[in-house]
Amino acid sequence: MKVLIFPNATDAAHEAAKIIAKKVHEKPKSVLGLATGRTMEGVYRSLIQIAKQNNLDFSQVTSFNLDEYVGLSASDKQSYHYYMQDNLFRFVNINMNNTHVPNGVAADLEKECAAYEEAIKQAGGIDIQLLGIGDTGHIGFNEPPSAFDSRTRCITLASETRQQNAGMFEGNPQKVPSKALTMGVGTILEAKELLLIALGKDKAPIIARTLEGEIGPEVSATAVRLHKNVTIILDQDSASSLKQQ
Ligand code: GLP
């Protein structure tokens, strides 16, 4: 496991973007695992900038997002479909037919999850998976406890998570959907490479717990320590509670 600590959030996000850009440059048919949330906004901003400066070609890239709220459609401004369009897809030449986000309004959610797993397999697996981390230690929306062999499924969100994500819902946690579809921890661990980013003081306790605490399903992010090719990108604030720096 590589842990890289940067002086500030901008530099940390830029490093993450550079790693993704390098992957796309080296393998134009890359399968990218993408994530959402405030942390990724800076990563995508940098990635768009790098892409513009270097004429980076996304036309053959395939993408799979980690998760989506149940009950929100692609046109819903709070959906992760919308987020991806707004923060990345419309700024690069990715073929929208090759982008995938779980469908939170599918008639049969179980079928949707199974089809999502199958689509990842058909694409040859994920080359690099971007990950943020929630206050509960979730990656994707894998709330505690999430088995390390869990697959894409429908999950009930922890109240802490609805609180954390209330910003997009008029500050009201009750308005945050109570359920989401998420890749499982097992699905995430099958990616060839993992890239976890955490920024800011609020993430310091969960980062310390993730990197220095006991590995287990109570903190799904601890699973990344079992992966052979993982990079953790932090700023000084998110790294501030680590015993070893
Ligand atoms: C949501 C997403 C997670 C993400 C987390 C972190 O809960 N489902 O995948 O890691 O947000 O959010 P932020 O970057 O806004 O702190």
UniProtKB/TrEMBL annotation:
Asked whether the keyword ATP-binding is assigned, the reply is no
User: What CDD domains does the record point to?
Assistant: GlcN6P_deaminase
Q: Which reaction does it catalyse?
A: alpha-D-glucosamine 6-phosphate + H2O = beta-D-fructose 6-phosphate + NH4(+)
Cross-referenced SUPFAM superfamilies: NagB/RpiA/CoA transferase-like
Which HAMAP family does the record match to this protein? GlcN6P_deamin
Query: Any idea what job this protein has?
Result: Catalyzes the reversible isomerization-deamination of glucosamine 6-phosphate (GlcN6P) to form fructose 6-phosphate (Fru6P) and ammonium ion.
From the Swiss-Prot or TrEMBL record, give the protein name: Glucosamine-6-phosphate deaminase
State the organism of origin.
Aristophania vespae
